[in-house]
């Protein structure tokens, strides 16, 4: 599925992939947008979402595969290998869900955190790095940095940041959300070097960057359903990561 020609049109096409979780009451609530890894939305993301709701935020889990007719296997074969839906293209989904939030009475669209795991982190970082090139890269004629002004923070968990990701070379084109990141010292999928280089670039640009590194963590250490032999689930580290997530949200929304 190619994106529609406008952000609003693309939002209509992918809205079936939005799962909303929110506190009781009418709101408006600050909102966390959760962007999954390359193989699609996974059950462990709900553990993070539950903690966010307890902290008073609404959560939108954005499934980028299902509205495109892609299965988890398709994600593993094509998205994870970079054959299709790279971060710069998938950034269309971030613009779309932010536009969609403006029409939701329960959402405070001026207080948003974008949280991404692996490919989802790449997507968020590329969206912020695209600047005036967003329309060309996403295929959405009206995509651009103005749509991202409501972002108060980013939460990046083992984000992919090697070629062809954009942040290390471009920075974030004047966008200044707070940056929180979780890296694994034994990550054999995205490594540590490239994510750290991107984060260092953002620090040099004057952004507030906070990094939690688990020296013994692999990629997807917080996914209790992961089946990649390069990953190892760690319940203890997962609990710490979720606590860090809540603190990052509170700091971003304050």
From TrEMBL:
Domain Xaa-Pro dipeptidyl-peptidase-like: 19-139
InterPro entries per record: AB_hydrolase_fold (IPR029058), FrsA_esterase (IPR050261), Xaa-Pro-like_dom (IPR000383)
UniProt keyword terms in alphabetical order: Hydrolase
Pfam family, one: Peptidase_S15
GO MF assignments: carboxylic ester hydrolase activity
Full protein name: Dienelactone hydrolase
């Amino acid at each position: 599925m190619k994106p529609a020609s406008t952000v609003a049109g693309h939002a209509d096409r992918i809205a079936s992939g939005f799962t909303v979780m929110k506190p009781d009451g009418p709101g408006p609530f600050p909102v966390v947008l959760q962007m999954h890894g390359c193989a699609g939305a996974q059950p462990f993301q709900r553990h993070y979402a539950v903690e966010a709701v307890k902290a008073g935020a609404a959560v939108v889990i954005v499934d980028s595969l299902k509205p495109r007719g892609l299965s988890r296997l398709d994600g593993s074969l094509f998205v994870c290998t970079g054959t299709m839906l790279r971060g710069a293209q998938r950034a269309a989904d971030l613009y779309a869900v932010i536009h969609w939030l403006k029409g939701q009475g329960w959402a405070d669209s001026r207080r948003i955190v974008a949280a991404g795991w692996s490919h989802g982190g790449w997507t968020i970082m590329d969206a912020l790095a695209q600047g005036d090139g967003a329309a060309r890269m996403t295929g959405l004629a009206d995509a651009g940095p103005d749509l991202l002004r409501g972002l108060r923070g980013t939460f990046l968990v083992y984000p992919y940041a090697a070629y062809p990701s954009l942040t290390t070379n471009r920075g974030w084109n004047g966008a200044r959300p707070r940056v929180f990141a979780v890296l694994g010292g034994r990550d054999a999928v995205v490594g540590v070097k490239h994510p750290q280089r991107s984060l260092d670039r953002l620090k040099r640009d004057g952004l507030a960057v906070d990094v939690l590194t688990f020296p013994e963590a692999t990629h997807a250490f917080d996914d209790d359903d992961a089946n990649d032999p390069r990953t190892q689930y760690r319940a203890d580290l997962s609990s710490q990561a979720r606590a860090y997530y809540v603190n990052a949200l509170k700091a971003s929304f304050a």
